[in-house]
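Give me the fold.
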Amino acid sequence: MDHGSRVILTNTDHLEVTLEAEEREKSKDELAKKARLKKVVEQVLLGFWLSVLIIVLIGLAAGAVWVSVNKWSWTLNEDSCLWEAPGAYPNDGKPYRWDEDTTSWVEVLSEA
């Protein structure tokens, strides 16, 4: 029998009240931590979406400048909101790519 560590409680009501108060404080601390974490996550997400928006806007601005500076041969069809090449895409079943230098469709040759 170990007699070296004894705890004698003379007022258990005080101990219960103290333990309940400590539990309430722990709960408050946990809620505060969760609230801080939620705020950090919201700020990170807001920062992320603002960054995406800035990148998109810069890209749109750069694209608009690129089109006007390089005098791209395609025209924007305002009814369909699609870019249209000056010449129709060949209808012979072969793959083609657009060559801006010659303003024509160039057949894509497969490497065998």
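The first helix runs from residue 12 to 70.
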